[in-house]
Specification:
Layout: H1 2-22, H2 26-32, H3 34-38, H4 42-50, H5 59-66, E1 71-76, E2 82-88, E3 99-107, E4 110-119, E5 127-132, E6 135-139
Antiparallel strand pairs: 1-2, 2-5, 3-4, 5-6
Amino acid sequence: MKLPLLLGLFALLPASLWLAGCATSTMSRIDANRATYESWPVEMRQAVLDGRIEKDMTPEMVEMVLGKPGRVESRAGRRGDFEEVWIYGGSSNSPVKNANVGVGIGIGPVSIGGIGGGVGGSNADYREVVFAGGKVVSGDDPK
């Protein structure tokens, strides 16, 4: 009886380690760049803490909130200037769309599933942040 439980816990350990190292949090990015963060106006620091993208944020501020984008594109803006578009989530981070992997373990009548993952994601987590002149002019907020 103890063997299936032990094997199940062993199967969950890699999953928890994978989730912990999968992405850096906003707080860990702030901690790694504390001096830069402290130099920003209080409204921008609060927006970063809240995970919000605000108009006039710099690319450095956006990266502290969301991390590095999956893809960066340039396009002509409305006023004839060029915009830089940072794309997060959805299928923007990978040419493979909606690929998933699952691993489970079972002994006898007891089966314990453990590890799962995916690449590409769905459109629900797709997000664009648009910069013009080095400042945010618009950003999709999935909340």
